[in-house]
Amino acid sequence: MGLLYLGTPLAWDDAKKYADHVRTHGITQFLHIWDRVKDKNGDELLWGDEIEYMVVSFDNEEKNAKLSLRQTEILAKLSAIVNDISSDHDNSIAVPTFHPEYGRYMLESTPGSPYTGYISDLLSVEKNMRYRRSLARKHLKPNEIPLTFTSFPRLGAPGQFTEPYHNPADAVSSHSLFLPEEITNPHARFPTLTANIRRRRGSKVAINLPIFFDEETPKPFIDPTIPWDRSIYSEDPEAKNGAALPDHIYLDAMGFGMGCCCLQLTFQACNVNDARRLYDGLIPIGPILLALTAASPVWRGYLADVDCRWNVIAGSVDDRTEEERGSKPLKHDRFVIPKSRYDSVDLYISEDWMNRPEYNDNPLPIDEGIYDRLRKHGLDDLLSKHIAHLFIRDPLVVFSETIDQDDETSSDHFENIQSTNWQTLRFKPPPPNSTIGWRVEFRSMEVQMTDFENAAFSVFVVLLSRAILSFNLNFYIPISKVDVNMARAQERDAAQSGKFYFRKDVFTNPSPYSSGSSSPVDGVPRPKEKKLRNCFPPVPAPLNGHHKGPVEDEYEEMTMDEIMNGKSDRFPGLLGLVEAYVDTLDVEAEDLAKIRSYLNLVRDRSNGTLLTAATWIRNFVRSHPAYAKNSVVSQEINYDLLVAVDEIERGARSASDLLPKDYTGGNKDQGSI
Ligand code: ADP
Ligand code: MG
Ligand code: MG
Ligand code: MG
């Protein structure tokens, strides 16, 4: 979440008058940044995670687990505590910080300062995450627990799912049939975003997740819990007029998506070209890690036939008009736009020779005026297209106090559009007036129930990012195939039963791949490195000239096990690549064991030894004595599930199908900074 301004947000009819103003000045602001930092070079690896929590309030008498809406109070308290801890320590200790998020029951935490490339930092990630969790936990009410759980199973279900109760009839921003106004962070930005998405779109958002048909689920499934005949808001009849599909779980508000929790990572690159290379390298990884971290099979009290949050969030902020969605001919709007502003990346942006034009095969509406302006300023085709594609969107929240800005020192208008394009990867230019470099954010992962898992996936991705850069790995496949993978990643049990398009030969040069202490290119031994490096020479030109066979021959469908653990000698699997990279590091035996324990978790999830969180949750529900085999996740099942999640996290309950046997829970290890 970007900075939160205090100010007067404009309703959509007023905000839209400033759309061109925001875009024009946003581009001016970007160009000032570009001129200042396009040649910035030599930045070290800095990286950090963002972890989101939902605060759950347990009523042990009624056996109900509800979302606690005390975000404002909790954040005020945590921020005072963080300040106290900081003043008790010398400056060398950076105390983690907590941030607001969309849901009024959510918290986000980040390390107090980014991690560096030192191995010791790699090993501090889990401790840091655990410290954050125990800090939050200690300062909540005794019956409140911060859970890292992707989607709250009974959000929007009948009965009481928030503490305190609020009636959905009061949902003046979303007009939802299911979620009260109070689900949303009260800061003006969030209700305004919610209302302006609805107003711009011309209807409520409409998400339909296929129901998981169990033995007793009625067929067809017509959801009896939808208030079909409510008539409070003008959009109320949408459900019965076709927005709510049979055999689906219907969701009608931003909160269903933006109220989910995820795990994100941001990496600083050496320079803009490396950032572009890393961005591209991680694009095909987005869906793979979405499937591996799948953690959200229950929605509005029902088991769904999907395991992930992604399409729910995409739909929950889909502000496109009917014309933009292509369901009416273009008359008032400028573009037909194939995707929501929350969706997968549409364009590879690296200028390396590896990036063949054929890979950018998605339709790409761009703002031609902005594209021309960027080109005239000297930017290359791909980066100009990237920005001109993001800038087809309107700004959704405009504050009357900040319409006029100093474009040399501010990036607010740029960030207004940039930070409301929520894609699997985000290419983050340096902010003005800072020493921060070019960064890439990896955004697809679902948050895991324990910090051991969250650290494991974070460590895996940071090591993979190094392998991509240091071995010049080539993961390119047509971006339309990455989108096919995104859809497949969300299907039930994708990590076990799905197949994904992946590149067969990931090495840039035909020389045999070698690992260990010798260079993969020339086989000459090189000293092991003590630190994760950030700056690498440009990708060498191909030894045999540009071999340009048909793109279709470069990739094939693979199982998750093959993608992660290897298929042939040209593809050792992502874990094989990471292991080879780890071999180039000078790591103490004990530290190596810890790193291996993280990689083992990722491996066990990819080969089926351990379940994904989604499968574990689904199994829990389906084997609960109160489960009527009809897809319904009742208040009682939800309560028992979330109690179990907390117990597992603390180590008070074992889950040997989900976690390694030697997992030590939060009770034993509260982390440190
Ligand atoms: P967002 O805009 O995605 O919400 P946040 O500020 O919440 O961003 O989180 C950004 C993450 O990036 C944090 O983990 C932070 O530690 C990390 N970070 C901060 N500075 C840098 C940097 N220069 N390079 C890379 N990561 C950084
Ligand atoms: Mg967040
Ligand atoms: Mg954040
Ligand atoms: Mg982020």
Strand content: 5-15%
Instruction: Give the mean pLDDT.
Output: 95
Task: State the end-to-end CA separation.
Answer: 24 Å
- Supply the number of structural domains: 1
C-alpha-based Rg, rounded: 24 Å
Helix share, percent: 25-40%
| Overall body shape | globular
- The CATH topology comes to Creatine Kinase, Chain A, domain 2
Total number of helical segments?
Answer: 23
Ligands bound, unique: adenosine-5'-diphosphate, magnesium ion
CATH class: Alpha Beta
Structural class: alpha+beta
Main beta sheet strand tally, sense and closure: 9 strands, mixed
* Spans of at least 5 consecutive residues with low confidence: 511-518
Protein name: Glutamate--cysteine ligase
EC number: 6.3.2.2
Pathway: Sulfur metabolism; glutathione biosynthesis; glutathione from L-cysteine and L-glutamate: step 1/2
Organism: Dendrothele bispora (strain CBS 962.96)
List the helices and strands and how they pair.
Blueprint: H1 12-15, H2 19-37, E1 47-59, E2 64-68, H3 71-88, E3 97-99, E4 106-110, H4 119-122, H5 125-138, E5 144-147, E6 162-163, H6 189-201, E7 207-210, H7 239-243, E8 248-251, H8 254-258, E9 263-268, H9 272-282, H10 285-292, E10 298-299, E11 302-303, H11 310-316, H12 322-325, E12 342-343, H13 368-376, H14 381-390, H15 412-418, E13 422-423, E14 425-428, E15 439-442, H16 451-470, H17 479-489, H18 494-497, E16 499-503, E17 555-559, H19 560-565, H20 573-582, H21 589-607, H22 613-622, H23 635-650
Parallel strand pairs: 2-6, 12-13
Antiparallel strand pairs: 1-2, 1-4, 1-5, 1-9, 3-4, 7-8, 9-15, 10-11, 14-15, 16-17
Bound molecules: adenosine-5'-diphosphate and magnesium ion (3 copies).
